[in-house]
């Protein structure tokens, strides 16, 4: 996989916080820290989208299925994210 360079402007205080975190953790450099932070944010957004999709599905099935627990919703959201990463979106396939 090829990588591309981006330019990022940060306040000095914020950059010092990042540098302190890098120094006091398992990160080797700023790039590694920022890359992981961005991956985590993308994953968080994907999970939220999956949960919202499940909520729509849940609403359309009101009275037809049992109420899912938070753990069950989290598990379904995780499975949905994995399917999206593999190029499959069940909600789109079902027109939801």
SSE topology:
Blueprint: H1 12-23, H2 30-60, H3 70-85, H4 90-93
Helix pairs in contact: 2-3
Q: What would you note in describing this structure?
A:
- With about 100 residues, the protein is an all-alpha fold.
- It has one domain (about 10-95).
- Helices cover about 65% and strands about 0% of the residues.
- It has 4 helices and no strands.
- The protein has helices spanning about 10-25, 30-60, 70-85, 90-95.
- Helix 2 crosses helix 3.
- The chain is elongated and about 55 Å long.
Task: Kindly list the characteristics that best describe this protein.
96 residues; mainly alpha; elongated
Structural class: mainly alpha
Low-confidence stretches: none
Oligomer class: single chain
Strand segment count: 0
How many H/I helices? 4
Summarize the amount of helix as a percent range: 55-70%
Order of helices and strands: HHHH
Q: What's the Cα radius of gyration? A: 19 Å
Q: Tell me the fraction of residues in β-strands, as a range.
A: under 5%
